[in-house]
Amino acid sequence: MKKLVLAAALTAAASTAYAGNLEEPIVEAPVVVEETQGSSQGILLPLILLVVVAAAVAAS
Hints:
It is a single chain. The chain is rod-shaped and about 100 Å long. It has one domain. 53% of the residues lie in helices and 0% in strands. It has helices spanning 2-17, 44-59. This is Ferrochelatase.
């Protein structure tokens, strides 16, 4: 009975010891998405503010 328990313990230890492999993991490169910005991006907000101010002046 002791030999059976010893054999079971050694089998369990051996199976977990060889569970892994020696190959390096495959790591994919991260995907980088660049946002395109037009040249008119910086002037859009001042134009909207100008229209709002002109509408406020015209209404008063």
